[in-house]
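Appendix B, example 12.
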Amino acid sequence: MSKVEAGLPYPKGATYDGHGVNFAVFSEHAEAVEICLFDADGILETARVRLPEYTNGVFHGYIRNLRPGQLYGLRVYGPYAPAEGHRFNPNKLLLDPYAKQLHGRLTWDDALFGYRIGAKDADLSFDERDSAPFMPKCVVVDIGSGWKLAHPWKDEKRPHIHWAETVIYEAHVKGMTALDPNVPEPLRGTFAGLAHPSVIEHLAKLGVTAIELMPVQAYFDDRYLVDRGLTNYWGYNTIGFFAAAPRYVSPGGDLGEFRHMVHHLHAAGIEVILDVVYNHTAEGNHLGPTLSFRGIDNMSYYMLADDKRYYFDTTGCGNTINQFHPRVLQMIMDSLRYWAEDCHVDGFRFDLASSLGREHRNFEVNARFFDAVLQDPALSPMKLIAEPWDIGEGGYRLGGFPPGWAEWNGRYRDAVRSYWRGDPGFVPAFARDLLGSADLFDKRGRRPWTSINFVTAHDGFTLMDVFSYNRKHNEANGEGNKDGHGDNRSWNCGQRGPTNDPKIRNLRDRMRRNLMATLLVSQGTPMILMGDEVGRTQRGNNNAYCQDNEIAWVDWSNIGKRDEAFLDFTRRLAGLRKRLRFLRQTRFLHGEKVSDYGTKNVAWLRPDGAEMRPEDWNNGLSKSIGLMLCGKEALPLLILTNSHSEELSFKVGAPGGISGWRLLVDTARGLIEPDEPITGPGAAVTLPARALLLYEGVR
């Protein structure tokens, strides 16, 4: 091995230049950093090289003749003084925060902890055991050409779907294809499997314009889960913000498969959005393992409590990343740019995004992270989605993010579920959120697409389970059914779980259609949960974070006629949304006058055809409402909804300029654009129990 040279303090991580590798590691409080080199199996440590230079808080050095594929790790020297916030321990092999590929898996052992577990002399006493045998290793990669499937992007054309045209599909890389008989078995559950033509064809036919992937950045399975024979299936436990999770790479493949997947999705006009976790890491609380950041510079990478042995935790995961530190914020921005520029993803959904907006521990709409993204030419044009809450004080910030950001609207989910369940008093909330939740988002130039509307997501019941279970059934998680939330707004339609009763099955089908139809006729950006279109069930589990098995996977081989019918209904409904411009408004509607029809662009209607009055909105017993949308650019639409258990008569008036109404959607019968007579203006239609009807005006 060549003598180590000074190298450069940038770019951080391991950078191959064709002749050797430059290493650069930030640590404000360390005394020294060593690069540990390993053999091809990651077992034998072949050399230790101390980085010779320190510039602006960055240790750096250059080693000639090192090549892509070299395995390495870090050992960092400095004070071990937990009471002062320092956790340096060179006996612990550490992952490079900028590593772009990992080799091997983490094996849980007490040696992974920087303190002596079970020591009698003192709390957090120093541990001298070497953790290298139990740690995965970092891999030197050549981003430009080193990966077998690295794509040059020469013919790449990003879809650039306008927000108003966007339909999101939330999916899990493994869960999507683990049981897909159309995907070759070695590729199931991998990036390559998700790129299979049959998967992409399914998404395209469904009308999906963006797939939002649950975390794919490198993460580990928590020790308490491994001890119970479970895994961290969801992946919200990141330890490497630049490396893709090795578990999603097919046998014999490499991480270029991720680029390959993005390329093929783009070719089909589908964008790729990554669910990212920059609010905490897998190292957990003060009693967690020392895997990377804690051992490199605990005081810089994490927010510490007043007693520096502990962490200021707004995430519920034991720690909070200290993005107030400029070098840590730089790491987050570098990571985002890497996935955007080198891997061509189209957007990000930020887990517990309120944590990223905290300034001096309080949320600020002009926080430095938001400002950094806004000024970045690579990131500001991308789709940016916030999960607008964390568990800290004042952490629920729905509607509080800056312009350019969309937000998961959990209020929409709750209002829609409650209304269709028939709960009294939810007509105002249902109507408010049907039009894009303007009370939350119509400010600072924000648009209806800001509201990411969903009725189901990975965290909670599937659509099938919403109408199959009254309560959660998380027994398989091994936590005594105490995990997961209890506010499900669900209804089992008269019997828990699967049933052969035709009346209950028909009712469940109707209720599923109601929620899906509401989702796709609402103003805002709809998000469909993986498998909802084909009746996926988690058997009542509303917190399947640790279920890497049939509970959480989509069973594509067990789709019956009812689910095929629902799939067809969803596809055709998405097609209607694409055709009907009124369902994809780029500005909020507030009942302004429009000249074409001599009426307002929004009119809320009672069953007698008259407009809603204040006393009608305050009628807690009302469970039905109509919405008429009018404007210059298209024919008017009429949406009638009835969450009563009984049918009712609804008078359908008509604005000037049309001769009647043509039925487009009937959730009671599961019909899309049925061949039926035109309904004349002023006629009374029978609005079935628990049903949504959508009409289009006819000239």
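The longest strand covers residues 691-698. DSSP finds 15 helices and 33 strands in the chain.
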